[in-house]
Amino acid sequence: MQHQSTKNIAIFASGTGSNAVNICRYFLNKPAVTVKILVCNKPKAPVIENIKPFDVNLLLIDQTDFKKPKKLIDYLQNQQIDLLVLAGFLWLIPKTLIEAYPNKIINLHPALLPKYGGKGMYGNTVHQTVLKNQEQESGITIHYVNEQYDEGAIIFQAKTLVDKNETVDSLSQKIHQLEYEHFPKIIEELLVG
Q: Which residues are catalytic?
């Protein structure tokens, strides 16, 4: 049975779900927040297997249902979802879903927005571009989702230095460390204060 004031999260993920797993692990023994649903758009995404130990409901969605998300919204509302957390989810969120959850959808981006955001800017593509442009720092941005890729209001940023001999892999690891450290805490702050 759920705690009366428990806040419920739906995580949206498309890939391996390392951040989804990290978030589940973080909230495992914190009754104030429950990861209730994983929404995934790829039936073979590794995140589905990786999140199994955490007893999270799985909702697979396709492009058609997502673009007309009435069923999705009804389902999320029936499940009393308080926050939608995008953790490596690559589809643009439809306007009707944003309207149903105003300032209740957040995204994690592996760069310091407004730089290196927008369509196609995810994963190693971001890190390659940061290195190519010889940036001296990179980091993560947690932001609210609006109708444009990576343009919603910024909630939190954390920075890391980019070394002269940095590689895509080493930068990616630094960024992952920032994500794992900060993303669950920010979610907790937004939900519980």
A: 109
